[in-house]
Amino acid sequence: MGKVLVITTSLRAKSNSDLLAERLIAGAKDAGHSVETISLKGKKLGFCIGCLACQKTQQCVIKDDAVAIAEKVKNADTLVFATPIYYYEMCGQMKTLLDRLNPLYPSDYRFRNVYMLSTAAEDDEDVPEKAESGLQGWVDCFEKATLAGTLFCGGLNDPNEAAGSEAALDTAYRFGTELK
Question: Among positive and negative, which fits the CA dihedral 154, 85, 20, 170?
Fold first, then answer.
């Protein structure tokens, strides 16, 4: 089995996406994967300044937590991004991180399969489409990678609400067991 990196992007305490990511991780471990988790809580992530120096050096000129995260992303076999949906899109800190992973574009990255777990207060099936499209756009820039799957758990608004949803917890666990 492979090395899975789960990046949780919510900054809210007891976030629903974090709780479901924990179940996904349990499923992935039970399926035999080695799993590492990075939370963006407490991390310093500056905005990409578009200098493109990283395309020559494979290093970002901004020295913050994104540098170490990028190294872990580069060396993972499988990536999972867990995000709340804000205004029908991935959270801003996730988008900032994706932009800051630009040094990986010319590198010999390992990841092949990318997944997204998303949560939102609304539960219509089209709610995560723009977030998934945004991640697909990032994945499209990495020709050896594919967006291998997404899981949306809607109808979760209040902090820790996912803890009371056995259906969402079970679905997240099963999703974790199916990671490649």
Answer: positive
Q: Is the distance from CB of 81 to CB of 139 less than 8 angstroms?
A: no
Q: How far apart are CA 157 and CA 126, in angstroms?
A: 17
The domain total for the chain is 1
Domain with 114, as residue range(s), is: 3-177
CATH code for the domain in which residue 22 is found: 3.40.50.360
pTM of the model: 0.97
Q: What are the residues whose beta carbons fall under 8 Å from the beta carbon of 83, sequence distance 6 or more? A: 9, 10, 17, 90, 91, 94, 116, 117, 118, 119, 131
Q: Determine how many CB atoms are found less than 10 A away from the CB of residue 161.
A: 17
pLDDT category at 88 given cuts 50, 70, 90 is: very high
